[in-house]
Amino acid sequence: MSLFALDDSTCQQLAESHPTPLFAYDKKTASAGFHALRAVLPQRVRVAYAMKANPFPPLLDTFAALNASFDCASGGELRHAANLDLPPGRMFYAGPGKRDEELALALALGARIQAESWEDLARIDRLTTQPVAVNLRVHPASGADEGNRIIGGTGPSAFGVDEEEAPTVLTRARGFAKVQIRGLHVFAASNQRSAETLLQTHAMVVNLARELRAFSAFEWDQIDLGGGLGVPYSPEETPLDVAALGRGLEALLAANPWFQGELVLEPGRFLAASCGLYLVRVLRVKESRGTRFVILEGGINHLLRPLLTGQAFPVKAVGKVGTTRPATLAGPLCTSLDRLGEVMLPELEPGDLLAFGMTGAYGFSEAMTNFLSHAAPEEIWVAV
Ligand SMILES: Cc1ncc(COP(=O)(O)O)c(C=O)c1O
Questions:
Q1: β partners of residue 92
Q2: Is any ligand 1 atom within 6 A of the Cβ of residue 267?
Q3: What CATH architecture applies to the domain 274-382?
Q4: Of 24, 213, 253, 256, whose CB has the highest number of CB atoms within 10 Å?
Q5: CA 370–ligand 1 middle distance (angstroms)
């Protein structure tokens, strides 16, 4: 798999016909990624695209046309999903803090809600006029993708009901007039490229579901395994073996005949990252006390992830060859936090174009655009 969705001459053309900085998303790459995953998963696995990775409307349309379901985590995302005119069952709504009006919207749209607390359950029961199936999101006590800053490991968490409290919550929930807990949601991995590690986590979740469903008054029809399917951010990182993941999920279903419902995967990064490129020009090059700073038109105002995770996006100098040497990529903002990575690049001069790959997920969607009041980058859809 390529870390860069588009070749150099396409990048040049796009940067000449649009103002930079610019996010370009390639339809072919997005569709191929979806097909590649869907093709290896058992029928009883539903794929719900986690819209937070990138809610760009043509990308959502593309996934909707390929029969994707959608994981939403705000009223805004629910409204994006509503625009897709989805058949029932293809929308989910999660989040540790939900407003009454967001819950009411989710109910009106028929989204499957991931209840994350006793209060969520009680509010849903109050807000709905008819019986409604929900999943209970549980924060596991062990076995999760530990050390993970995004999901938070197995320590204290704002997400879900702590596993040790889940039996009590499920038992009490039998008293609701309308809310019916019919599934489990556990999200315990992030950017995980090992199919084996993902499958260990998934097996842990299915085991937990087997134990917990005894406390619910209803049969369970869903086990939502969350997102977390990883992608490479450098040529040294091996891609996730999705075929192995598919085989493992098939085996997991076969080993758990008590469960005849569907598994749900909510990949965001895996489905959106590879289709995106961030195109940005060099403004200046400064040699400072032995360090080459390459100062760009955009920085953490457009790509925040490197600062949050310490991991750079892959980058290439478009149309340039030659010996590379270390470069510190700085944005135009008046803060030393504005860094996009320490990378190897050829000699560069003002006006040269850089392309950052894998920026289709948690790129612009996670940016801090208003900081320093630079213009927002354009986002374009490349559908040839
Ligand atoms: C509930 C939920 N599902 C899915 C995802 C998507 O995760 P990823 O992009 O790692 O697949 C997230 C990400 O934070 C999430 O919170």
A1: 71, 112
A2: yes
A3: Beta Barrel (2.40)
A4: 24
A5: 24
Q: Nearest CA to 112 among 77, 136, 96?
A: 136
Interatomic CA distance for residues 329 and 54, integer angstroms: 24
**Mean pLDDT across 346-355:** 98
Pairing type for strands 315-317 and 353-357 reads antiparallel
C-beta neighbour count of 107 within 10 angstroms: 18
Q: What is the pLDDT of residue 156?
A: 83
pLDDT tens profile 197-223: 999 999 999 999 999 999 998 999 999
Ligand 1: distance of its center to the CA of 19 in Å? 31
What's the pTM value of the predicted model, to 2 decimals? 0.96
Which of 46, 145, 190, 193 should be mutated for ligand 1, with most atoms under 8 A from CB?
A: 190
- The domain ranges of the chain are 55-267, 274-382
Cβ pair 347, 370 in contact under 8 A? no
Q: Is the distance from CB of 88 to CB of 108 less than 8 angstroms?
A: no
**Tokens matching residue 35:** 């097909």
Tokens linked to 324? 């590379």
Of ligand 1's atoms, which has the minimum distance to the CA of residue 190?
A: 10
Atom of ligand 1 nearest to the CA of 137: 1
Domain spanning 55-267: CATH 3.20.20.10: yes
